[in-house]
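Morning, I've got a small favour to ask if you have a moment. I've been staring at a protein lately and its backbone has me curious. You're getting the sequence in one-letter code plus the fold written as tokens. I've dropped the whole record in just underneath, so have a look:
=====
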Amino acid sequence: MIEWFSTWTVWHWLILGFCLLIAEIIIPGIFLLWWGIAAIITAGITALFSGMSLVASGIIYALLSFILSIAWWKYQHAKDKTDQKHSVLNQRDHAMLGSKGTVQEIAPNGIGRGFFGDTTWRIQGEHLQPGDLIEVVYVQGITLFVQKIG
């Protein structure tokens, strides 16, 4: 066996790294992946420089953990921001913009029900009659503001 691989600090960093990776898999919602990878990288660096002290390898581990965690956080934070801009999940009303439907019933004040796809929505518009073809112009709360098409 190679001498540099038999140092106790290398084995401790490897064991810590793999324990953290296993814990990441077993325990949901815990952020240990990057700390585990940092421990494995630290084991490699410690193996390359066999005279490295435990304090020096601990500092390398802390720096790597910090750098990897912050880099992942920045990447994920930027990705989440762009996903939120384009996502209409749980915003069904906003997904309705531009949708076409028909007036089901309408009161003299311009408020009524419109049929869109397989459901009805509260609508508001001017000069509408039951059966008119309509399009959603904007949304406010639970009311779809519509205009008559054609």
